Amino acid sequence: AFLESLESVNMTYEDLERETREQLVSQQLIEEVSGEIEVSDADVEEYYENNNDQFVVEEGVRPAHILVAKEDRDLADELHQRVLDGEDFAALAEEYSIDDASAADGGDLGFPTYPFVAEFQAALDQLDVGDVSAPVESPFGWHVITVLEVRDGGALTVAEAREQIVVSIQSQ
Q1: What is the pLDDT of residues 7-62, one digit of tens each?
Q2: CB-based contacts of 108: which residues, under 8 Å, 6+ apart?
Q3: CA-CA distances (angstroms) from residue 45 to 75, 112, 121, 152, 162?
């Protein structure tokens, strides 16, 4: 199936291998060279002024959760209580959460770019930073939710955007 997919785009395995090698070599070269490029404060200021629309962040909430299967309500209750008793939320998420995408990060869901299911969102809306929800049922199972961070919206300052700007300038 893999070879057929390559053939469908008029590519051989050897073509793929060559292109991949070239891309990796180019990427490594760019990384090595760009790290040696000095970027002045004036360059950073100029880039910021010319591209300030890139440095606007929306307000948001960064939650974390521990997700267990629908049939594991008792486990969800137990995990909720263990967090309330002082156990580390992230460690419990890593050990028990069935959400493979976030479990390795301690249940951290980041600042979402998509809406959460209604049940999850309703519980999240009731929490402040550090609060922990009672188990919440959704179509995915039982969630124990906490809020890691709340971010106000608005423009980043030059100082906040500096690292991102330096990387952009070096890449260019």
Answers
A1: 899 999 999 999 999 999 988 887 777 667 888 999 999 999 999 889 988 889 99
A2: 62, 64, 90, 102, 148
A3: 52, 29, 39, 23, 9
Residue with tokens 């460690």: 91
**What is the torsional sign of CA 150, 155, 161, 164?**
positive
Of 71, 85, 73, 86, the C-alpha closest to 144 is 73
pLDDT at 57: 85
pTM of the model: 0.64
DSSP single-letter state for residue 95: H
What sign for the dihedral angle of Cα 75, 81, 84, 85?
negative
Query: Closest by alpha carbon to 46, among 166, 171, 137?
Result: 166
Q: CA torsion sign, 19 to 21 to 22 to 26? A: positive
C-alpha–C-alpha distance, residues 52 and 100, integer Å: 36
134-151: average pLDDT: 96
| Beta-bridge partner residues of 100 | none
Q: CA-to-CA distance for 99 and 91, rounded, in angstroms? A: 14
